[in-house]
Specification:
Domain Arginosuccinate synthase-like N-terminal (chains A, B, C, D): 9-173
CATH class of the largest domain in chain A: Alpha Beta
Largest sheet of chain A: 5 strands, parallel
Number of strands of chain A: 14
Binding site for ATP (chains A, B, C, D): 13-21, 41, 122
Enzyme class (chains A, B, C, D): ligase
Organism (chains A, B, C, D): Humisphaera borealis
Oligomer: homotetramer
Binding site for L-citrulline (chains A, B, C, D): 92, 97, 128, 132, 183, 192, 269, 281
Strand order of the largest sheet of chain A: 3-2-1-4-5
Shape of chain A: elongated
Chain lengths: 406, 406, 406, 406
Amino acid sequence: MASNEAPKKIVLAYSGGLDTSVILPWLKERYPGVKLVAFAAELGQGSELKGVEEKAYKSGADEVVVMDLRKEFAEQYCWPMLRAHAIYEQDYLLGTSIARPLIAAKQVEVARQTGADAVGHGATGKGNDQVRFELTYMALAPDLKIIAPWKDTSFELRDRESAIEYADKHGIPIPVSKKKIYSQDRNLWHISHEGAEIEHPDAEPNWEACLTMTVPPEKAPDQSEIVEVGFERGNPVSVNGKAMAGHDLLAALNEIGGKHGVGVTVLAENRLVGMKSRGVYETPGGTILYEAHKALEQICVERDTAHFKQQLVLRYAELVYYGQWFHPLREAMQAFIDHTNATVTGTAKVKLFKGRAMQVGAKSPHTLYDPQLASFSMEGYDVTAARGFIDLFGLPMKVAQQAKRW
Amino acid sequence: MASNEAPKKIVLAYSGGLDTSVILPWLKERYPGVKLVAFAAELGQGSELKGVEEKAYKSGADEVVVMDLRKEFAEQYCWPMLRAHAIYEQDYLLGTSIARPLIAAKQVEVARQTGADAVGHGATGKGNDQVRFELTYMALAPDLKIIAPWKDTSFELRDRESAIEYADKHGIPIPVSKKKIYSQDRNLWHISHEGAEIEHPDAEPNWEACLTMTVPPEKAPDQSEIVEVGFERGNPVSVNGKAMAGHDLLAALNEIGGKHGVGVTVLAENRLVGMKSRGVYETPGGTILYEAHKALEQICVERDTAHFKQQLVLRYAELVYYGQWFHPLREAMQAFIDHTNATVTGTAKVKLFKGRAMQVGAKSPHTLYDPQLASFSMEGYDVTAARGFIDLFGLPMKVAQQAKRW
Amino acid sequence: MASNEAPKKIVLAYSGGLDTSVILPWLKERYPGVKLVAFAAELGQGSELKGVEEKAYKSGADEVVVMDLRKEFAEQYCWPMLRAHAIYEQDYLLGTSIARPLIAAKQVEVARQTGADAVGHGATGKGNDQVRFELTYMALAPDLKIIAPWKDTSFELRDRESAIEYADKHGIPIPVSKKKIYSQDRNLWHISHEGAEIEHPDAEPNWEACLTMTVPPEKAPDQSEIVEVGFERGNPVSVNGKAMAGHDLLAALNEIGGKHGVGVTVLAENRLVGMKSRGVYETPGGTILYEAHKALEQICVERDTAHFKQQLVLRYAELVYYGQWFHPLREAMQAFIDHTNATVTGTAKVKLFKGRAMQVGAKSPHTLYDPQLASFSMEGYDVTAARGFIDLFGLPMKVAQQAKRW
Amino acid sequence: MASNEAPKKIVLAYSGGLDTSVILPWLKERYPGVKLVAFAAELGQGSELKGVEEKAYKSGADEVVVMDLRKEFAEQYCWPMLRAHAIYEQDYLLGTSIARPLIAAKQVEVARQTGADAVGHGATGKGNDQVRFELTYMALAPDLKIIAPWKDTSFELRDRESAIEYADKHGIPIPVSKKKIYSQDRNLWHISHEGAEIEHPDAEPNWEACLTMTVPPEKAPDQSEIVEVGFERGNPVSVNGKAMAGHDLLAALNEIGGKHGVGVTVLAENRLVGMKSRGVYETPGGTILYEAHKALEQICVERDTAHFKQQLVLRYAELVYYGQWFHPLREAMQAFIDHTNATVTGTAKVKLFKGRAMQVGAKSPHTLYDPQLASFSMEGYDVTAARGFIDLFGLPMKVAQQAKRW
């Protein structure tokens, strides 16, 4: 169990943005003498990580660790979730949820390597991310202290203005980005947007302002495009016949999908911490992959197995959204899921056009689709079989209906 | 229990098409002296019912009953299913499944009124529809004989050529329609297409050839359109502010949705009778309604209720697909669903563009969305609450992870 | 939202025991000038309530409200849960869980009647009961302050010794009961025991010391006894043919069951607040009712309905255990459950002997049990029906197994 | 696909009883020239198999194969089901269901070895067993013909009298057993009884007449007995500290349990083929194992994992009951289950007395039970943690209740 003493050395999840930059000097003031390790994870968030090392040192970090986690992220986190076909509340492909446990697990690793006694993050006290970070810390390293400035009542940098002023005062380089309208989180799998007009559930989001990885459908090409994804055991391995490592494959699909404006959703979702909130998500590559995976599962997975998997995965998606990646239930479910996906090998085609990704075909050496059975031809089919099936299948309902009437 | 004697009077589900037309004289030959009641249901299948009465008599019917069931179909069958938000295998909105029990229930009614001792249908022995018809007959009238020529080993009219020849010989009017490429079923909720290239799971369907209620996305307007649907207790009641009866509302949305090419899916699905088959479905109005209903549920239904409903509805969709509309489990589930939808009142906006229908906003007097809670503002929020929550929420996982390591 | 000011008038859930008695003067010290309403609920907890009014005044209460809630408890709380057939973690019949929301709801009622601005309870910060009380307060009266001394860091009466000393000092009547070995909670439905050797999961409980409502099986009569329970729509209405109000019926069954030592379980359960704990439960009457209700459901409820109900009720039991009685999901589930129990009318016989209650028969006017179908006689049964059933039922599994082998 | 020609060589599931004995000469008459392989499986059904080989030859078998499957049955069929903790309809421990797929799978093996083109069984057309046999045949060897005389309309030996007469005529040795009152099925795991008064759901079974593996509770010892079962990864490995192979362990527990009359249930259950039927089951050893396994799981399996497993296993039990042991869904579920049972290692004590088996304690090196957390001691516990937990856990319900009132 973590003690209540002040931390001596903290590994902080560091993004290079204003929010986590001001936390560095603030922690130095809050815990005099504390050593700070800024940990930055390359998860494919775009240009954000440029110069992150220098910036961290300038902001007060004693050590800086940058890790390129893109391959691990794609293959060890996104792919298992894709095999599950996990979707939260019908429309959210879990892009932020799936990244947090990886970052937190690596922070723990860095804490062990650098002899730190604490880990910390800059997530607020009203959101899901604090839970995702901290559950992972607790599961993997219950002895480490957890430092979360936003939940510290003495933390006062709660709006952009205070943060900029504080940064100025402490000589922290402020990104010369245009004023951020939305609160965003980006990685190789997706980008999320919250805040501004998105917070009003009856307002259409300002797509022009927020869309980042994708174009608005109106600006997508007038010509549709079909992309073919190859799978082995439920894992994507190639695009249009070209084998690729996980992160490269995802990047390639993000580009194709982004061009056609696919993978954008807006939803009012239920946070783990109890309130409803609204977000816009762009998941271009992931959306193509889900559509392709669905097409392939349709021909490779047996009916009752597929139906039960759908049910099980609702809970799996909850676990991922709730930050419980390292939960024994998630792990046991993964064993179920991976068993069902052992034969999900083959290719699927997805058509992209003006904001929609739609599967249009799939084939597999393990297909369960039997054209002879599927067709209307009655050749070789016992026309009397259905009679007995219906009689026995319908018997309980028939008896129940009669009892009701008597 | 139905006896084994030959039927004396059969109420046949009659569509006016070639398939059911030839069944009339065939039944007369098969059961000499039998009386035939041709029952045709107006479910919004378009022009198919024109002249159906005359055609039936010419084909050998002794009585003809035509019923306009569009309002009942929309409000008593489609709406309960919409409140459930039932979807079979992720993509099928159950358009054929939901219509069969209504037709069969009305056949039973007609049998009672006309003193018939049998009901019959022209569905084949390999498909789902035979089950849907017969389960309903069995549930509502177990004493009636079930006549299903396609499952009669002496039935020989199993292809179009034999049927046409037989029709010619018996003076049955043959519809001068162009050669049917696909096997189709249409009603106010949808049209389905099976057969031809659709039977090949790796082939993209020939959209130009099959699409009927919708245009291909490429031919949809370059301008998007937003439609606003009003709901009361989960039931759609207005479009763009104009109150409408169920069937009119559905027809209006079919037109709008069809124009924008929305609501088209293709899937390899699992039939109840065991094989996989592939179909194309067009559900323009239904797709808009599902998207609008989802948006409204997101703000009106509490989290754990919404999550459990998602799970329950997977089973509900199975029941509908399996033809078990009059099943006590479907009825008990409906009680659950209707309870959850008691506050689903308000409006939702859906944007239509080039084949995609996407919710972009919703509002409700019963909204559970609290802008103050949803926002990033920490004003009035206890920043320390999350600490205790995470500690206790995460405790079981933390203890389990530690035990694993020992 | 409840304000942070000191409470002016508190309605305290008061049991008359030492624990809640010392809380009265303590609250007066903690909140100078506060008015205290001691609320005691008669739930059939035995002799505990004798003299409770006098004791409360002596302990410092300004007002005392005692309500006899036994009938409401039995019929409006226990019966709905019985219709659900809810069991937590296979063995706990939820006796404490089901009583808390009723007490809390009545406290809110009393608060409204007496103009109080706060409600309070004496449950500790490690258990489930605090959650059950407070969730109900929050749901029904979010404006009321919640006072929970055990979670107040300034509360120091955390063990029996401090409490006795404090009581002495404040002139509070101390119950001259023998030293309590176990922490117990009793009502008409059950009694629970925690603490002492029960806390050691590998130790057999000291039955002689803890059993209260039941005799140890070794001391039960050598003669078995059969009790017949009558039900209407899933609700018990008579015992051995004699109609009774809910609380009388429960008391009668407790006596019969207690005599035969039935309804005792010990289990290591999972608390909502995250840890595992172990308890002994005595639920003699409830156990008989569950067994009888099961027997009747077996003949009155259709198969797939019964199977789905079993699954749904696992979640229902969680909700009850977690204190979420007034949760919209519990209410929607109740609609489902009550629908399934509309035909659960009839009688069931339960045999009691040396610690075991076992159903031995049931009958109902709505029985779905058809002796002709159940028997081995093949008379009137189509021996060929099963052939078609098995062929189609088994088709997906057969195809899947073949695909695996290729 | 199996052809429609007459079978040339049939492997028949042969029990040595009258029912399957008469089938041998009957098959010879039905299919002139057919070769018959009588396959008898030793599953611990008691003395029934004595002289089975001789009897089979006398009855007309051309080849006889007897296999001792007791170890495989216990360890590869019963144990996986025990790890699942599968129970059908609350009370049936699936003793017949679990044996059929093993027998059928071995028949297929024997068919391959002996060059047979058909497999057959003597189960009737109204029961579950025909499905269990045939689904396994279909899954493992779809090319083999299935011979089921009871579903052959020309089979006339449908009652005991006809069978005895036929046996006499064909010189078949008739077992000199007393007249069988009940239809029974016995193996190492259980014995089932159907027929006679058991078919009347309101009649208490005649225990004296039917009980076989157990004594009636009234005749059990007046002294209780505690048995300790050791488990490794969810599999029982020892009794009272003595390591045993699966079938020996089961036999030992059957004896101990039988002596105390434990493991007897009677229930009206729902058959797969649609009707309700009623049976008495004796599962003495299995009941002890389930109770012990439950006790150990309670301390070794994390809460949410345990809760989800309970739900999943309802479907697993259906699959076993429905004869779908070789179903891909059962196999995927087993992967889930085995993952959850990886830490279910330790010992559990079960107390046996007059018909009841009751767990009274368990211990494990992987226990998640933390006495410090479980106790009422608040030492080292953050009394304020629960506040935040309740606030956020209860937020959705609170908001929903408020919305309802507006």
